[in-house]
Amino acid sequence: MNWQVYIILCSDNSLYTGITTDVERRIAQHAAGTGAKYFRGRSPRQLVYLESGHDRSSASRREIEIKRLRSVDKRRLIASSDNRLEDLIIQ
Q1: In whole angstroms, what is the distance from residue 88 CA to residue 77 CA?
Q2: Cβ(47)–Cβ(18) under 8 Å?
Q3: Looking at beta carbons, which pairs linking 16-25 to residues 24 or more positions away fall under 8 Å?
Q4: Model confidence, pTM
Q5: Could you tell me which CATH number the domain at 3-90 has?
Q6: How far apart are CA 32 and CA 43, in angstroms?
Q7: Is the pLDDT of residue 90 over 70?
């Protein structure tokens, strides 16, 4: 199964990192308030980063790595060539 690591820019300009097998479904869940508790009191504004090709284990490890980054480093990651967001848009 293809797991993805994603980052969402939130209404308070914070960055939320998560994993899923279906990023469109997961973002819809966050927007509807049925996703992570993190979105209570804030809402998702935009998907800004996507990384594909993981299994469940490697996606979880990568999520933890990203969550440990400083905000400036997360924004650098978003601007990097590792970001596969364009691949999602093209499909």
Answers
A1: 17
A2: no
A3: 16/44, 17/63, 17/66, 17/67, 17/74, 18/63, 19/54, 19/56, 19/59, 19/60, 19/62, 19/63, 23/47, 23/50, 23/88
A4: 0.91
A5: 3.40.1440.10
A6: 9
A7: no
